[in-house]
C-alpha cells in the first residue's frame, strides 16, 4: 500500500541543515547521461546526491491569492459517519485541497462515500464559478493521485459554468464525489479553486453509499477532532501563494547548488485557524501552497545548468520510499510547460536516482538569465524535494 504518515517524516525533515557543504561535481559519464536524458527521466548519479549540497539563499513573500482550505487531519476517517472538516469562507476566491481516506476497519472494512459540500450561508443567492477543477477516482495509489492531480491543477482552466445556490441550501463542490465508491484505504483526492459571491460553509463528510451529501449534511453532527496521528493539517489559511527568489546570483563557476523550500525550517509551515475549535492550525508540509520561483543565474565559465530533483527522504521510514512530483518550468533545452516527475514511471525511489527537470543553456555574452518554476509540495510524498542546479558541460 502507498500510504503516508506525514507526521513521521516531517519530524525527520526538520533536521536537514548542516554547516558542512559539498562542491559536488559530475563525472564525464554523468555529464553525458544528463545531456542524453529525456525530460522527466531518471538518471543515476552514483555518489553525487547528498543533502549537504550548498544551499541557495533565498527570500520569499506571500502574494495575493485565494482563501485556502485543506482537509487532511485526520487523514484517515476511522468511523463510518463523521465530519472531517467544517470551515467558513467570505465572498471571493477559495482554494480547496481534499485529502481524506476511508479508514473504517472495525468491526469490518466497509465501502463509504467522502463528499465535500458547500452551503450558502448568505442572505442572497450565491454564484459559484470553478476556476480550477481536478477530480480523480479514489485509489490506494496515493503517489499517482498526488502527481497527476498536481499536474492537472497547474494546467486547469476556468469553467464557463456558474452554479446558483439558494440561501441556506448546499451542493457538492464536486458532483463526481457523490458517485464514487470509496473502499477501505482508498484516498479521495481533489484540488479545486473557485469563486463565490456570498459567505459560505465548506464541509467534508464521510457517509454510506445510499445517503446524498445534502442529506448527510443535515444528519451528521459529530466532527472529528484535529491533531490526530496522521495528516498534515486542516483549517483555513490566509496564505496560499508565495514568490521565491534567490538573493545571490547563481554562477556556474561556483559549482552545484540546491534550493530547498517546504522544509519547515528555512521555509516555515503556514499558520491558520481550525474552524470547529477556533484554535491555531499549522499546515505541516505546505501542501497545496503554490510557489512562484524565479532564480537568477549566469555562466562565467561557459557551462549550462541542469535542474534535477531527488527523493532526499528515502531513508527516513517506509512511508518515504518513493517520491512523485509535478511542476511547471520555463524553456531551456526542452519546451516550457508542466512536467510530471518522473515522467515515464510512477516514482523515483532513492539515490543514486535523480530526475531531470530541465537543461538551461548559457547566454552567449554571459549575461544573467532567469529560471522560472511553478512548484507546490507534492501530495503523498515526503518533503523536502530539493531543486538542484548542476553545472553541465554542453560541449564535452
Automatic annotation (TrEMBL):
<feature type="signal peptide">
    <location>
        <begin position="1"/>
        <end position="23"/>
    </location>
</feature>
<keyword id="KW-0732">Signal</keyword>
<protein>
    <recommendedName>
        <fullName>Copper amine oxidase N-terminal domain-containing protein</fullName>
    </recommendedName>
</protein>
